Every structure is written in C-alpha cells, then in structure tokens.
Task: structure prediction
Amino acid sequence: MLTPLGGGTIGDPLQRGVDVITTAWLQDKTNEINDTAQADHKETYGARIQQLREVGQD
Result:
C-alpha cells in the first residue's frame, strides 16, 4: 500500500519497514500461541496419565 508514495522512492522503504514490523509481530504471536498450547498439552497429558493410574488401581 505504501510503495506508490513518492514514485516508490519513499513508499518502498516504508512498506519494507511495515513488512518487517508485521512479520516480527506475527512471529511473536505465533510463538506465544505455541507456548500456551504446549503448556496446555503437558497439563492435559499429566491429568490423563493420573486418570489412567487411578483406573488401573480399581
């Protein structure tokens, strides 16, 4: 969107900057989502193992 500004001489570098910032933000959010999901999976796995142990004791 910014590339056409100033015939591309101003807009192109601006667009590249926006792209870099957007890419970094997206990577940060992706890492955050993956970390949360991994923690949730570990918690669920631990709970299921405990349930299996309890069923095995009956």
In short: The chain has a mean pLDDT of 89.
